[in-house]
Every structure is written in structure tokens, then in C-alpha cells.
Design a protein that fits this description.
Blueprint (H helix, E strand, L loop, with lengths): L1 H25 L1 H11 L5 H29 L1 H17 L1 H7 L2 H28 L6 H28 L3 H8 L5 H13 L2 H20 L25 H22 L1 H7 L8 H19 L6 H21 L2 H10 L1 H16 L6 H10 L3 H16 L9 H13 L10
Helix pairs in contact: 1-6, 1-7, 2-3, 2-7, 3-4, 3-6, 3-17, 3-18, 4-6, 4-10, 5-6, 6-7, 7-13, 11-16, 11-17, 11-18, 11-19, 13-16, 14-15, 14-16, 14-19
């Protein structure tokens, strides 16, 4: 009875941890258009630097995070990660008070660094708290927590921060305010993020202590050093891993575009209340995730499902670029359904049979999250150069084609040609 109670408590704690991931990550979809007004940014690229600063931390900090966890252990690593995440939230205060966009970027990079640590910690914990044969069920549960937080985050931010300032934002964008009145309005907009992020920082700091003091079994970092069936000199000698990292990079980039750019695109297409669109896309993602839980592997294998969903992503990508903008927005929303399955499809194909390289391989796959930083920045550059948010979505097509290549061919390549 006690062990069962401990199991559910551990699962609850991990569900909260994945909820934090979703809450912090997906609110970025609404931060970009908010910062563009509040920080008086002039180009699309400047706006999407917020996304870049957050997600590039996965590329820069994941390997150092892996090394750190090897020394601290995973529970202490989770504590450090949550405290760094709290620090990033607290940095929003000086950023808002000084109206300095670069400080906001530092805060977002700090939060991205924290999530690089926490992402490296979280998945092994989900595996070890219960029987290995039920690990997939636990991953489904915490994944739903993550997506549910992603649905809530833009809605809560919009209600708490944007809604009270909506008229002021419209006046600024419409050029109705000038001089000192405009400066005062911009300051008020930025001051609106202070209270929510202070509260978030306090909650994260306390949750870090609770998680560290909990009875969740720690992971011995030296316990996952098993040798593979065959020795290879380098992690790069596994083609299916290297190609899988690129596929994951493309997937996360396209997912970021479908969620984090949709507000600006919908706004330019004449929609009202555009803040709901990221939540609609994530609701589709949640629906797709639930469909995957039901269908895989009872009705379709994970590998065949990956082939199906990547093909659907290609079709939707072509439609986004080919049809009128007011309909293309809904294609981006629907892209959440097939995107939900891709991550879980690529990961096992890329990580299998790595032996002693498994930990490093996992860390490199987490680094692929930087696709969420780079794709929106490329999109913004194309939009600035072409003057069209709509036409910039053509970058979805080559990304989808590469994912199809990996689903059908790339994951089968065991050796580079000699």
C-alpha cells in the first residue's frame, strides 16, 4: 500500500514538472507579439529573437547540463534547474523596469538553460519510478500534463497581462500616442509582466525544494554506462542517430512555427482575438497525442504512424503556402495533430543500440530543441525580406520532406558508406 502511494506521489510530482515545462515554453508564443509592441521593435527578426534566446540554450547548454548531472545526481540537478528557472523569471523584473529588451533576452536564455537541465533530468525519472513495462503509460500521462499547460499558458498570459492593456496596445499600434504619453504607455505595458513572473519565480523556487526533498528515487549517473553490442569509436559513427537529430531539429522547428508565429499571421489575416490560436494548435496537439495513445501499437506501429504523420505534415505545409491566408491559419492549427506523434516516433529510432553512448546520444537529441529557436528566426528574416508573413511559410516544405526521408529511409541506415 505504501509503495503504491509513493508511486502515485512520484507520478504527481513528475506531472507537475512536465506542467512547468509546458507553462514556461509555450507562453513564448504570445510573448513575441507582446514584446514587439511593448519594446517598440521594428522588425520581425527582432521579435523572434525572444524565441531564439530561449531555445538556443538547448544547443549551447545541454552537454554542460549532462556533465553537471553526472556530478550532482538527478534530484539535485532538478533542484538546480528549477532554481535557475526561477532566476530567469525574476530577471523579468529589472528587464521591465529598465525597458531593456536585451535583459529580457538574457532572462529567456536563462530559462532555456534551466529547461535544458530539466529536460535531461525528467525522462529518466519517468522511467525509473515504476515498472519498465508501464513506462509508456507514464510518459503519456506526463505528456498530457505538458500539453495541457501549453493550452493554458497563452490564455492565462492573455487574460492577466494583455487583456487589461488591450486598448493601450491598440493606441500604440495605431499611432495615436506620441512623445511622453507613448513612452508612459510602453512602460505600463512592460510593468504588466512583473507580478506574474515574480509569482512564477516564487512558485518555481519552492517547487524545487519540494521536489528535492521528495521520496522520488534518485538516479545514479554512473549506472547507465552499459556497453553496446559492438564498439564504435565515436557517437557520430551512428548514422541513424545523426540523421535523427536533424529530423528532430526539423520537427521541432516546424512545430514552433505552427504555434509561435500563428498570432502574428492570424492578426495580419484579419482575425479577432488571435491570442487563442496557440491554444487551439496545442489543443490539436493534445488530441493527436491522445489518438496516438489509443492507436499505437494496437492498431498501427510507431514506425508506420511516423510515416503517416510526416506525410500529413507535408500536405498541410503545401496548403499553408498555396491557399488564402484566412484558410492557411487553420492548416497551421491542424498541424498540431500530426506534429504530436513525431517526437515520440523519431526518438526511439534515433537512440536504439547506442550502448555506452546512450547518455550522450540523449543529450544531443535534446539539443535538437534549438530548431525551435532557428526556424522562427529564418521565417522572420524571409518575412522581413519579402514583406509577407504568408510566403515565409515555404520553409515548412523542405523540413517536412526531410522528416519523410527519415521516417521511410534514414532510420534504417546503420553505417555510413565507406
Amino acid at each position: 500500500m505504501e509503495s503504491k502511494r509513493q508511486y502515485f506521489f512520484s507520478l504527481l510530482m513528475l506531472g507537475c514538472l512536465f506542467f512547468v515545462f509546458g507553462l514556461v515554453s509555450w507562453v513564448n508564443s504570445i510573448l513575441v507579439p507582446y514584446f514587439k509592441v511593448a519594446c517598440d521593435l521594428q522588425t520581425e527578426v527582432q521579435g523572434y529573437l525572444a524565441q531564439f534566446a530561449f531555445y538556443i540554450a538547448y544547443l549551447v547548454m545541454t552537454i554542460p547540463a549532462s556533465v553537471m548531472l553526472g556530478r550532482t545526481g538527478y534530484k539535485k540537478g532538478a533542484l538546480i534547474g528549477l532554481w535557475i528557472l526561477a532566476l530567469g523569471a525574476f530577471l523579468f523584473v529589472p528587464a521591465a523596469l529598465t525597458r531593456t529588451y536585451n535583459v529580457f533576452l538574457v532572462a529567456l536564455f536563462t530559462m532555456g538553460t534551466a529547461l535544458a537541465i530539466l529536460q535531461t533530468v525528467a525522462n529518466p525519472f519517468v522511467t525509473i519510478i515504476g515498472p519498465i513495462e508501464s513506462a509508456a503509460k507514464r510518459i503519456s500521462i506526463v505528456g498530457i500534463c505538458n500539453k495541457f499547460a501549453g493550452i493554458l499558458a497563452p490564455l492565462v498570459f492573455s487574460a492577466v497581462v494583455i487583456a487589461p492593456q488591450k486598448e493601450k496596445m491598440a493606441a500604440i499600434q495605431g499611432g495615436e500616442l506620441t512623445g511622453a504619453a507613448r513612452d508612459a504607455a510602453l512602460a505600463d505595458l512592460l510593468h504588466g509582466v512583473i507580478a506574474p513572473y515574480v509569482v512564477l519565480g516564487i512558485v518555481l523556487f519552492i517547487f524545487g525544494i519540494i521536489f528535492y526533498k521528495s521520496k522520488i528515487q534518485d538516479i545514479n549517473p554512473s549506472g547507465n554506462k552499459t556497453e553496446g553490442a559492438e564498439g564504435r569509436k565515436s557517437i557520430l559513427s551512428y548514422p541513424y542517430l545523426v540523421l535523427g537529430v536533424i529530423a528532430l531539429f526539423c520537427h521541432l522547428g516546424t512545430q514552433a512555427l505552427s504555434i509561435n508565429t500563428i498570432i502574428g499571421f492570424a492578426d495580419g489575416s484579419g482575425f479577432a482575438n488571435t491570442a487563442v490560436f496557440p491554444s487551439l494548435t496545442l489543443a490539436c496537439t493534445l488530441l493527436g497525442y491522445l489518438m496516438g495513445v489509443v492507436l499505437i501499437p494496437r492498431y498501427i506501429s510507431q514506425q508506420n504512424m511516423l510515416k503517416v504523420v510526416t506525410s500529413i505534415i507535408l500536405v498541410l505545409s503545401v496548403l499553408v503556402t498555396a491557399i488564402p491566408a484566412k484558410y492557411a491559419v487553420w492548416c497551421l492549427v491542424l498541424m498540431g495533430i500530426p506534429n504530436s506523434v513525431v517526437y515520440a516516433g523519431i526518438w526511439p529510432l534515433a537512440i536504439h543500440d547506442l550502448g555506452k553512448w546512450t547518455n550522450l546520444g540523449s543529450a544531443i537529441l535534446v539539443m535538437a530543441l534549438c530548431g525551435s529557436a532557428i526556424f522562427p528566426l529564418i521565417y522572420a528574416s524571409i518575412a522581413d525580406a519579402s514583406g509577407s508573413l504568408h510566403h515565409a511559410y515555404w520553409i515548412l516544405i523542405p523540413a517536412a520532406l526531410y522528416m519523410i526521408f527519415y521516417a521511410f529511409v534514414g532510420h534504417k541506415i546503420d553505417y555510413w558508406k565507406r
